[in-house]
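Two records follow; treat each independently.
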Amino acid sequence: MGVYGTDRLGFDVTACYHPIMPVQRLVYHAMGQDVDLVIVDGQIAMEGRTLTQISEEKVLEDAARAFEKMISRLNRPEVMQNDKLYELRQ
């Protein structure tokens, strides 16, 4: 069993590979963007960095709807009207 129940992960090792300590480089320096292939329960879930089982567009739409619902339940519109919302310091 692999990471989070995956069967196999395929990495683009050119991004993090180094001839000295290649395993440590993969473990400590590889990032999500280096994953090229994911197999879950024998099914290819991502290949060539493209999702094969679900629509990325639908996931983003569902997330946007959930976010809007959460914000409306918060009942504090000033949270989203904060000019410094995405600044590191406020």
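The next record belongs to a different protein.
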Amino acid sequence: MIRKIGVSPATMGLIEGAKHYKGVDARYMTRQEQYERRLTVCRLYEDGLSIADISYITGISHPTLSVLIRKFRDGGYEAIKTSEKVVQKITERQFVVVGTIADREGA
């Protein structure tokens, strides 16, 4: 249960907005949606909600929130920006090896 004592109307608005994140897998969100979710989490934390309360509201795990909050405390909003996905490229030799294995297995 969320402690509502001393929570401002603005914070209650953030809480209501954050509820739609519950059950949503971040892997299927756009980078912008992920960043907005991170912003909301940090604003709730700044407004005095505990990590346990934020976890309850958003459905984000306590360990994930702890890492996010630590990054935010150390580097502010810039530190929580979503990074570009890194696409790992394979060498030509790796490509040939994978193709050879697939040929052997009849793929």
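Discussion point: Residues 27 and 34 are 9 Å apart (CA to CA). How would you locate this feature using only the token line?
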